[in-house]
Amino acid sequence: MLSDAIKQEIESHIHEPEHRAAACTEALRIVQRERGWIDDESLAEVAEFLGMSPHELDGVATFFNLIHRRPVGRHVIRVCASVSCWVMGYEGLREKLLAHLGVEMGETTADGRFTVVPNQCLGCCDRAPALMIGRDLYRDVNPDALEAILEPYR
Amino acid sequence: MPTIFIDGKPVEIQGNENLLEALIELGLNVPYFCWHPALGSAGACRQCAVTQYKDEQDTRGRIVMSCMTPAVEGLRISVDDAASKEFRASIIEWMMTYHPHDCPVCDEGGECHLQDMTVMTGHSYRRYRFDKRTHRNQDLGPLVNHEMNRCIECYRCVRFYKDFAGGTDLDVFSSHNHVYFGRHEDGTLESEFSGNLVEVCPTGVFTDKTLKKHFTRRWDYTTAPSVCTHCSLGCNITPGERYGELRRIRNRYNRDVNGYFLCDRGRYGYEFVNEPRRPKRPMRRVPEAAGNQFREVTREEAMGALGALVRDGGPVIGIGSPRASVEANFALRLLVGAENFYLGLSKDENALMAATLEAVLEGPARQPSLGEIPKHDAVFILGEDLTNVAPLAALHVRQTVRNKPRARARALGIPDWNVLPVSRVIDTERGPVHIATPYGGKLDDIAASTFRATPDAIAQLGFAVAHAIATDAPDPGPLPEETRALAARIAADLLEAERPLVVAGPSCDSVEVIRAAANVAWALCRRGRTTAGLFYTAHEANSVGLEMMGGGHLEDAAAAVLEGRARAVIVLENDLYRRADARLVDAMIEKAGTLVVIDHLMTPTGIRADIVLPAATFAEGAGTLVNNVGSAQRFIEVLRPAGEITESWRWLRRINTAAGRSTVTQWVDLDSFLRELVGELPVFARIVNVAPPASFRVGGRKIPRQSHRYSGRTAMNANIAVSEGAVAQDLDSPLAFTMEGFPRMTPAKLMASFWTPGWNSAQSITRFQEEVNGPLEGGDPGIRLIEPAAGDGRPYYAPAPVASAATGTLLAIERLHIFGSEELSARAPGIATLAPTPYVLLHPEDAAAVGLAEGEMAEVLLTDQLPVRLPVVCAPAIARGVLALPRGLSGLPFVSLPASGTVRKAPVA
Amino acid sequence: MSDPTHDLPLTGAIKTDGTPLSLREYEAIGGYAAVRAALSGLAPADVTARVKDAGLRGRGGAGFPTGIKWALVPMGDDAPHPKYLVVNADEMEPGTFKDRLLLEGNPHQLIEGVILAAYAIQADIAYIFLRGEYTVAEDRLHHALHEAYEAGYLGRHILGGPWSLGLHLHMSIGRYICGEETALLNALEGKRATPRTKPPFPQISGLWGKPTIVNNVETLCNVPPIVARGAEWFKGLSRTPNGGTKMFGVSGKAKRPGLWERPLGTTIGEILDLAGGMRDGLTLRGIIPGGASTDFLGPEHLDVQMDFDTVPKVGSRMGTGTMILLDDRTCPVGMVHNLMQFFAQESCGWCTPCRDGLPWVQKVVGAIEAGQGREDDLDVLRRHARLLGPGLTFCALAPGATAPLGSALVRFKDDFERHIRDQRCAWN
Ligand SMILES: Cc1cc2nc3c(=O)[nH]c(=O)nc-3n(C[C@H](O)[C@H](O)[C@H](O)COP(=O)(O)O)c2cc1C
Ligand code: SF4
Ligand code: FES
Fold first, then answer.
1. Interatomic CA distance for residues C52 and C58, integer angstroms
2. Which one of A118, A129, B449, B870 is least enclosed by Cβ atoms within 10 Å?
3. Sorting pLDDT into bands at 50, 70 and 90, what band is B725?
4. Nearest to A56 among B171, B174, B185 (CB)
5. What is the pLDDT of residue C101?
6. The sheet that has B3-6: what strands, in order across it?
7. pLDDT single digits (tens) C188-215
């Protein structure tokens, strides 16, 4: 069940009452923030709350990059894989990170702490390579500093 | 007519279409995928590319999508230039990177638009050398098969299912080359129109699941033009036969009726024809045996007995049927005499049909054809749950909401075929559809207003609307303020429209509703809205034809029998237990000396018969049906029936002959029989022109039922007998059972299977239309037998006073289901699995008031009827004080409705 | 000339400590004066005229004249309502990082630009469509919007006048195609973000079929100074007939990659100098001048002036003005492979050439890079570079991919051929 607080937050994104469903991407973001990912039940709840069919909402949810329809770890690491970061050593950073966590791209660590996914250009190309953990952006990432970066995320 | 230049040569075009349509109309082979004549242009597949030149000097030109290019005066293009040819071939090459190349095992093979377009563009050499992406397929239920790997991502399926048909459970998922078309989880498709995916999909993603167990290649069917018998609309169909079995139904285009689409009942109801236990020979009851036992007898024995029965004095009562052809009913009437012929409708059904006919014959409003519905721009529906009662009408009404946005788009310079910008505003600016029904339906999502009330209150609303339109239309008297306001709003919407439409029918069991609808349409006509349409549904495939014939109703027949006025009863294609209380039917059958039943299937009535004659279905014989708007349409035999099965009218003629009645046995074939019919019943005068006579020839030859590529003509039965049997002769139509003839010269209305070189799929239809979405070349099939009265017509109906219901009682009414309520289709396994189990539908508060909740067992106690025990289904979208019982579901006894009564928790047995 | 915003109207006031200007700070440097002036003294058409006269061209990449775009919106009493103004803050084109600075550094300037643009077209509702990953900008815009509403610059009866405007922040859930303006509108409507047919253009039939203007962040940030200081001043900022300044950036192996506001018409070489030139020991081999969907230029192009009209003359586009450098130690085939991976992944899946052609391209380039190239692969690539070009696909995403692909096939022909010949990548 969507909590009243979540419902209220979703409502605050309905700017034009005749277009309730327009808030669906915001709703998915909000629910994902609370629950980590969008399971089928969450999907159905959001769809019902906004008067959409779950099929239509899933069509939207699966279209976009930032919505997880599969379980993820407590912290999602998004490694910028686009061209400037690539030039500046994305591949080395990626290998180091994956080796450190013992996962492949897209996987979650056994302790459920991290999921690593590639991300398109993070928009800080002058400070490449870059990655995000949750809402936090890290630039000029030195592969040797990874451990220290990850440390606070428990 | 504007002129465009193709490779410098001037050609004239219609002028309101896009370039792709213009090129199709010119007969050119331009490939396409995402464009569909009913769905319009999307510009997604990029397959229809041609080169456009600025002017005469421009030799390079630029590639444009013909489906997105308005065909305007002076346009200069080339279809055959190297650049656009290369691009078109590349499109296929891209699609083929992932397509599995599984044509040999694909059900679409041989009628696949993708195959056709691949050949047309000349892509033949595979350069892509990498892995293919693969998808998991879904179980979409008993009707539609899913093989997603064949997808070429034209988006037609979702555009049909969602945008056109209003479905909500098929969508597109993911993105880039992972896009996936299906449901978000496995499960039966919920749309009543899901089967159209089979024809809309240009490749083999969606195929007919019922066909899988007896699959046949397209060119190996025997086909004939036919008409759906599963509701009153008479959609045109193409049944396909092989090895004596009916294997599938496809849509047969008729602009005036169903256009490109069928509902799932119509497409999948056919399997009742193949029911193994169907009677195949005459049968007689074994009198001394316990239970109901029959033995097959020879035709001679049966005819001997029946001839004697008819000949040897004393009246025989004939009970006709609204699901039997005009011919069959007339043959029965001829056999028993008009005075002994009863329509086979209950008293109530008969009253409803009589009221309908009176309203359309004596009033000024015209009944639009089904195919005209989408042109209307404001709709008022009284009492009909169209999706379940007249499904294609629901699909067509759904299109009406586009007309208002379309007009606005036109003002912005957006042509009608550019459908996506139009769809965009449909949520906020759709045209008005007002729905007044006792319980909710699937059109509610597009409704401008819904009014949930008893049939009487719906009728009152209708009368109030009529009065609000034209003050001389009688006022129903005092009404709640909201009802008055709603009536004013509906009236305003209808008056403002260019083509208002009023829809009603018999579902509410209320003559008042039918009359209220008539008043609304007449008021519009009398206010100068001569385009106003009045569209009535009817219960069954030939309800209107039967009513036009005239005769008493079932209760009259029963009375005649019970009064001892008949020695025998002949029941034609009718299960009386579906129309009257079992106690009445039992009494009647007991009293009748001999009961003769002529039908396709064994029914509860058939089981009580003394003699059963096996009747041909629509697939096995010829006949004429008159649909809800009075259009007569011919169905023609596709399938030589097994055993002694033949048309009911032929059985009745044989009985006549056996009885030695030479005067009525002049006719041996359909044409001569129709002449006799018309002589006796002039209202049917035009019925003889419904299809060309059996003597009709094209180039001296009959019209082939089989394609030129039909395989195994001489060998297909070699496992049974090596010598080729005589080719069956059809006395009743100009169709031959073989492949000889000139298919391309056949009048399109006689054509069942549309094919031209290079166009093997359903898409070939555009080659047989006068223009895209126009009538078939030479005219659509079907002839109207009913026209409204000339001039002003009869005066308005006066509203009947409404009796107030006793407190504490509920009004029980019936509810129809597309799957399960219609007798024949309910016997098809695919449909049967989708039919609901019987239940009683209640408003949650009405249920709670007697301590009932969803799923609990209720006992329904109706005046004068046996109690029924049913599980409760609760729906807020049903009027308070009303309970609904499903009609005709298997396992549910007949209940005479409407009736008043009560419900209570079923006492523990 | 002590006013730092005189020559650098977009960034002159942005603080170096990385904190955004508060409403008070922004007002202190003359912020929202343009709104006050316009709402009290200018007709909507006057605002449009001023922007038109200034020669402001869209900074989202295509360079369409902003004033002309606004003038296409139906005006007057019988114009449909609501009308919408939408800010395209989806910045996701690889190598592009210019809007981030404006959003994070001075959100009020964007908000002021939105109010002015909305006033010019008499919009009722405005949306900022912000990339989901821009979390800092999200927080700062939230705060700035709150301030602006409180101060009466937004909401009902702005500054006590008759006109009202609601401005809402919409966070994207991520996809490059959302940057395409019509796809963006679908995303705002809560739909799959596939692009829409044009015509009808959004100005006529946009969000929910109503008149809508979509403008880039940088474009709108230029509007307050134009309204405040006039068209002539704005034109004078530029070194070419294209008016104003431009955000220019450098990424790749330069000494000091970064982002600067400079006059339009600044040369590529001058911008490279701002970045301190190439890192020691590296030689410049190629330049993608304005985000991933522009054609490669080369070291011979350092004198080319960056503006909308000059760059096309040498076979590329200014695009977003943020350039990506290719050095001699980086494999051009690998770089193209990375770009193609991006475009193939970000194809929306609506039209065939892009959806199915780009993955093929990506696989071929990948195979070549991995030493599995074949003789005829270059033909396949060249054909795709041609057949996915402008006008052939439904939107400009696929043509964007063909720009670096097609130019790389010419410029780095030898490298491609060597990979195929040697069946290996010399840089690995
Ligand atoms: C695939 C694609 C992605 C785009 N991404 C962006 C973007 O992230 N930001 C942007 O402002 N414009 C982007 N554009 C351009 C927009 O479609 C549009 O032209 C622009 O927002 C108009 O604003 P302007 O006139 O102010 O430049 C993109 C275009 C395409 C085809
Ligand atoms: S070019 Fe690509 S992104 Fe644009 S519509 Fe076609 S598939 Fe979508
Ligand atoms: S038919 Fe024209 S683009 Fe698909």
1. 11
2. B449
3. confident
4. B171
5. 97
6. B9-12, B3-6, B76-78, B49-53, B62-65
7. 999 999 999 999 999 999 999 999 999 9
Using CA coordinates, name the residue in chain B closest to C364: B130
Ligand 1 centroid – CA C61 distance (Å): 6
Phi/psi of residue C356, each to 5°? Answer: -100, -25
- The span from the CA of B582 to the CA of B219, in Å, is 47
Cβ of C216 closer than 6 Å to ligand 1, yes or no, is yes
For residue A88, give the chain C residue with the closest CA.
C252
Q: Is C351 in the pocket of ligand 2 (CB under 6 A)?
A: yes
Ligand number, closest to the Cα atom of C392: 2
Q: What is the pLDDT of residues B203-254, one digit of tens each?
A: 999 999 999 999 999 999 999 999 999 999 999 999 999 999 999 999 999 9
Q: Which is nearest to B402 in space by CA: B389, B413, B418, B390?
A: B418
Task: At A75, give phi and psi (nearest 5°).
Answer: -130, 130
Burial degree of B844 (CB within 10 A; 0-12, 13-18, 19+): middle
Q: Which fold has domain A4-63?
A: Arc Repressor Mutant, subunit A (1.10.10)
What's the ipTM?
0.96
Residue C152, number of CB atoms within 10 A of its CB: 14
Q: Which CATH superfamily includes the segment(s) A75-153?
A: Glutaredoxin (3.40.30.10)
**What are the residue ranges spanned by the domains of chain A?**
4-63, 75-153
Alpha carbon C94 to chain centroid distance?
A: 11
Set of chain B residues whose Cβ sits within 8 Å of the Cβ of A18: 427-428
Closest ligand, as measured to the CA of A63: 2
- Domain for residue C117, yes or no? yes
pLDDT digits (tens, 9 = 90+) for A97-147: 999 999 999 999 999 999 999 999 999 999 999 999 999 999 999 999 999
Distance B114 CA to ligand 3 centre (A): 13
| Ramachandran region, residue C157 (left: φ > 0; alpha: ψ -120 to 50; beta: rest) | left
What region, left, alpha or beta, does residue B778 occupy, with left being phi > 0 and alpha being psi -120 to 50 degrees? left
Token code pair at residue B269: 């109801």
For residue B762 the two structure tokens come to: 């359903």
CATH class entry, domain B351-542: alpha beta
Is A111 within 8 Å of chain B by CB?
no
pLDDT for A50 beyond 90: yes
Contact indicator for C115, C158 with CB cutoff of 8 Å: yes
Determine how many CB atoms are found less than 10 A away from the CB of residue C131.
28
- Label residues B543-562 b or e (16+ Cβ within 10 Å = b): bbbbbbbebbbbbebbebbe
A79 touches chain C (CB under 8 A): no
CB B734 within 8 A of CB B692: yes
CA distance B318 to chain A (A): 52
- Pairing assessment for the beta strands B840-842 and B882-886 based on DSSP bridges: antiparallel
Question: Cβ–Cβ of B171/A18 closer than 8 Å?
Answer: no
Four-way CATH pick for B810-905: 2.40.40.20, 3.40.710.10, 2.80.10.50, 3.40.718.10: 2.40.40.20
pLDDT value, residue C132 = 97
Candidates C173, C198, C205, C347, partner chain B, best to mutate (most B CBs within 10 A): C205
Greatest extent of chain B over all pairs of C-alpha atoms, in Å: 95
